[in-house]
Records
---
Amino acid sequence: MEEKVRVLVSGKVQGIGYRRFVERYAKMLGLRGYVRNLPGNKVEAILCGEKDDVEKMIEIMRSNHPLAEIEDFKVEKVDMEIDFPDFRIIF
């Protein structure tokens, strides 16, 4: 089943390769969407794909980056009409 979620991560997640880390694993899982930096030491990701793969990616983002110091982690389902062709970092 297809799922779309928005993940908002705050803490020490900028300047440590976190976006590249997210991009690499998202592509490995076959997800679509994007990851980008936001002001205030936050990273936003839109994850689109099979529910199991989205859930795996959420767990990877929450706990697998060796330099990240996550202070807050929010996940919300989104209803977007946009269909992303792949996964990429946007600026």
Note: The chain has a mean pLDDT of 96.
---
Amino acid sequence: MSDRLNSAVICIGSNVADREAVVSAALGDVSRGGVVRVSSGLYDTAADNGIDAPYINLVALVDVAHDLDSLRALAKKLEREAGRTAASNSSAMPLDIDIIMWNGAVVDRRQYEKPYFKEGYAKISVTQI
């Protein structure tokens, strides 16, 4: 962790039974020691394949004391703690945390282009980014 806050746009999703609680808790864990500047709020999206259980998603702009590698490591740790494994797939995704933008730059172009991210990103005020 550094003394300076970094800005991250993250997308958090889950499609398990307690998905709202999982996503909300993950946002709190990711932003601990920082601040959530703006959030899309929770919203539903269909699974990419159109077959599996729908997702609850949330896109947020957060200021964090982590550097990018530390935030990525925290995201993976939280995913594992929520029950995500290498075998997890869209039919049962306990928790998915993607860091899409870092200090104003897109760092995950593939996720940036996904409809579920674009939907949530449109809900946050780009004037605050």
Note: The first strand starts at residue 6 and ends at 14.
---
Amino acid sequence: MNKIIISLILLFVFLQNVYAEHDPTRPAKYVENQQASPVDISSLELGLTLVSQDRRVVVINGYSLKVGDSIGGERVETIESNSVRLVGPSGNITLFLLDKSVKKEVQ
């Protein structure tokens, strides 16, 4: 009986260590925000904006960012429904979700 209890305890400890390293609910290609090196401004691409009462989040080059986070030395200053403003060594940069050329004047 003692061997079974000890085996179950060891199995429990082992499984805790395995799942502590990997969250099974995390997407397979998830990447932490680890980009600290400078990036070329022309390579910054706004992929998504999420604006709600509780939070404002953007995805730039595949990295999920909120106000105050940085990417390539540029800090996220403001997040709007269609754009994000970055401030840093390159000055003020505004990335748009949709290219401005999509909007055309009505004639």
Note: The helical segments are 2-21.
---
Amino acid sequence: MDNELGSIETEMKRGFLQLLVLVLLEKDAYGYAMVRAFRELGYEVEENTLYPLLRRLEKKGLVKGKWDVNEERPRKFYAVTAAGREMRDGLLAIWKKQDEIIKQVIKENNHA
């Protein structure tokens, strides 16, 4: 049972992390700053999970990366694109609808 729960949790986290990144990147951020922000929210994300996701989102045109070499250590900052905002809004609508359905089913089951 725990193995199956872990497998489903992994699937759920994958989609959630994509949405979370698209929401967070309304303000430009670099990878490690995102990891820290997620941890402050109580959501653990490994860098080796986040960076491949950022590359995939960049390849799809949902985020854009830009190197900042003005500081001692170069950093690649990411920002959501117009296509990324459109995707984010669609995903948020799906998320809200699914949340409403779950809440309604729980409410109905509690009153049955």
Note: DSSP finds four helices and three strands in the chain.
